[in-house]
Design goal:
Length: about 350
Amino acid sequence: MPVTIRTIIVGMGGISRTMLRALAEKDWHEVAAIVDVNADALDQAGADLSLPDSARFTDLDRALAETAADAALINTPSEWHYPQTEAALRAGVSPLVAKPLSNNFAHSQALVALAAERGVKLAAGQQMRYFRHYLTAAEFASSGALGDIEQIYFFNAKPRHQARNLVGFEQPVLWEMTCHHLDCLFALLPDLEPESVICDGYLPSWSVYDSACMINGLFRFSGGQHMIYHAGYSTQSDCYELRLEGSKGSLRCRGLHMSKNEMTYEFAERGGPFEVVDLDQGRPPTVPWSLFFDRWRAWLSGETADEPHFSGRKNLKVLATIDAAIRSLDAGAFVPIAADERYAAVFGGGR
């Protein structure tokens, strides 16, 4: 991998613009081409990036064939992820795919297998764990101040009353939101192994979505931990709370949304009241994409041999858990995860 990483940017919407702001500060990055089916979006992005017409494409296959690139940033609706990522892998270009890797577990497995076959590095855009409060909470949990953590409360919902591209999407919360929540949870508690899950999905009367846009769930983990989970897009106001309870006490983190650096921390010793604590201790807010891209570059360039959490293969742990949660909606009962043969390759074999 050369010192400079040349990328094809696929989909010139908000996610790509956010990524490009972070990448603009990296001297190792160069935009080789852009792809979008919307001519106006393509022209605007091309002008903003000072790209010639020859580097602007409406067709990804043409862009891959005519552009010397090392990676492709695929930021399109998730139902397009599978064919576009497959095309990049077959072209020998390393894809970085906006979450989820795909909205189909079998398709995601196929992409991971193809990446291994072709010797190409596949990554999923799981940057949320680099927000300051997750880094802070992970540090506090690992310090032992909470003791053995056994209970987790994870609540994150927001009032998105314009459904946009998710209006007719099946399971929008689990595929588009829970993928971030689970990755952040595994960052907080890396040894968690999902054992089983049951979820209930529903539509409030005021919702603009076509399928369940609110989720309540219960997760069991093999180490005896349990999580109460709430997420969705149709609350009437913002809702965010992360609570970790251990044998020594409880940590509560509250704010507007997971994608905000401003949070209030409260700690309660065992049996005692919550008290506000300043766990950040002057730690500046983070730019998650910037931290993510530093790790991505190190992995692509071979500077580090450590496979990151966002590799396609490692991201299957998140996607298997989501797939099981969706199955539990239909079953109306707890569904096994790590011990299920469907996910044996993800968790090292069924039990």
